Amino acid sequence: MTLSDIFWKVMFYCAVALIVLVAVFPFYYAILTSFETGTAIFRVNYLPESFNLDNYRAVLGGANFLRSVANSVLIATVTVAGALLLAVTAAYALARVRFRGRGLLLMTILAVSMFPQIAVLAGHFELVRFLGIFNTPFAMILSYTIFTLPFTVWVLTTFMRDLPLEIEEAAIVDGATPWVFITQVFMPLLWPALVTTGLLAFIGAWNEFLFALTFTASETQRTVPVAIALLSGASQQEVPWGPIMAASVLVTIPLIILVLIFQRKIVAGLTAGGVKG
Amino acid sequence: MANIQMKAVRKSFGVLEVIKGVDLEIRKGEFMVFVGPSGCGKSTLLRMIAGLESITSGDLLFDGERVNTVIPSKRGIAMVFQSYALYPHMKVRENMAFGMKLAGASEEERNERVARAARMLQIDHLLDRLPKELSGGQRQRVAIGRAITRDPRVFLFDEPLSNLDAALRVATRLEIAKLHHEMNDVTMIYVTHDQVEAMTLADRICVLRDGRVEQVGTPSDLYEKPNSIFVAGFIGSPRMNFLDGARAAKHGCHTLGIRSEHIDIVADGEGEWTGTVIHAEDLGSDNYLFVEIGAAEPLIVRRPGKLDHANGTHLNLRPQAQHLHRFDAEGRPVSQS
Ligand SMILES: Nc1ncnc2c1ncn2[C@@H]1O[C@H](COP(=O)(O)OP(=O)(O)OP(=O)(O)O)[C@@H](O)[C@H]1O
Ligand SMILES: [Mg+2]
User: Fold this and answer.
1) Which of A180, A272, A274 faces B102 most closely, judged by CB atoms?
2) Whole-structure pTM over 0.80, yes or no?
3) What is the pLDDT of residue A275?
4) Which CATH number fits domain B238-327: 2.130.10.10, 3.90.1300.10, 2.60.40.10, 2.40.50.140?
5) CB contact under 8 A, A277 and B163
6) What is the dihedral of CA B107, B113, B114, B118, to 10 degrees?
């Protein structure tokens, strides 16, 4: 190994360390802060100094926090399930069925996903009011599904296009109906794509704030991000940083666990081998 | 096990007509090979027989029964694809049994039929592997095995060997020939680009050109009695030599065809054509001489054994009279008079 090789290796790991630091530090600091109370919160420290569970007690003891978590779980799950079901079928059509205007439709779908949320907020609000689902979980489910579908459809369509047509034809010759084909051949092959897009849709729905704030009125309908933002302290002037940090940590952990579980399931290159080597 | 008849079969994709009226009968137990230039509709015709492509007009009959609208899995066919098309997430065993499973066969029967097909193709030891753990040749065997387990009336192959290297191609070709002998009542239809595959495997060859049948016949029929310039030029390698103008007129035709092995090198003054060798290819068992005689293309002369004429050699050539192919201006053979 020459000197310059070593130099570049060192530079590479420095860059990796920097990226990890930037990505992980805010969460690490949130964890530290969540175990501190009183004025300790405002002292800058980079190593754990105290271990105090008061903040967690305060959050979990609060009247509606668990209710908000339940709302978030429900909304995110239904959004993911609905979006995947619609997206798989839509992607199948977009990737496999020839029809006029297919390319245009795909571009439109992609373009739709570029609108900023705030631009369509008013429209969504009207829609929600019109459907009479204001202040119910359905308001969020509907708008999150609408927002997540373009991306999901787009990704799944690309994946499906890469699946060789001949596999589908082999299945037809073997006597597979479209349903058998989708469930027994497509889905197993699309696992990595489904998991990835499903996870992103879940995270998106779980973290979304603006719509959730706008479409809910009562405390019992709030989702977690809204609940955290609206946590109130002892007085109007006090921002309850401790409980906010504790709540943030609590709601981030499920996401981390989800990613860790599914990371193992994302078996890349599953399709390798079925087609010409 | 099935006799296949096509009556005025046509296929259009939108305004583009691809199959322009095909009448063809494929006999029970026959090995029929479709050949033709790229894009002439071989795959399309095969896929119409499979039921993967709809038939625009005309009739397709299996054993006298019209099957135009019967779905593929009910036609009693099995298909081997160029890209193998194995299910990547299933073990070899499951790949082979998938069709039977969908048809509702018992596990016992499935295992037995998979085992029988695996023995036939010597892939017993691969049954518990995934496709990605197999070599190209093994994958193609599995694909053929999957077709066998379906116990079809008709076997369809679309260029099954074109992804294999030369040695494997020969081995698998033998395998398919053996299969045809063992299952001699199963009709087989085979699409290929490869001359040798066509000549060695076929009972009969069907030459397609631009969506129409140009000629159907046994390999030796097509080789010895092509009924058009197109077939004469398409079948056989190296390509038949064609001469026109005065050289053809001398034999009373518009175009004269002569195969490379039917040209003799003779002594000075006895030849019909003279020219110099401009290029030579030595294949070990044979050698090809490219002789410039002033025609549009050099004449190819095939000689057995080692190369014996260097570039630049001056040669006198004479065609064997009984092997001349004479064609008129339309490219049809001039009737022997
Ligand atoms: N789904 C389709 N839509 C439109 N045109 C098609 C379709 N499938 C095939 N064609 C056209 O039909 C013609 C015949 O195609 P086909 O695949 O049958 O040719 P082939 O003889 O098998 O050629 P090759 O030897 O290259 O495989 C081609 O011109 C092709 O472009
Ligand atoms: Mg083809």
Assistant:
1) A180
2) no
3) 44
4) 2.40.50.140
5) yes
6) 160
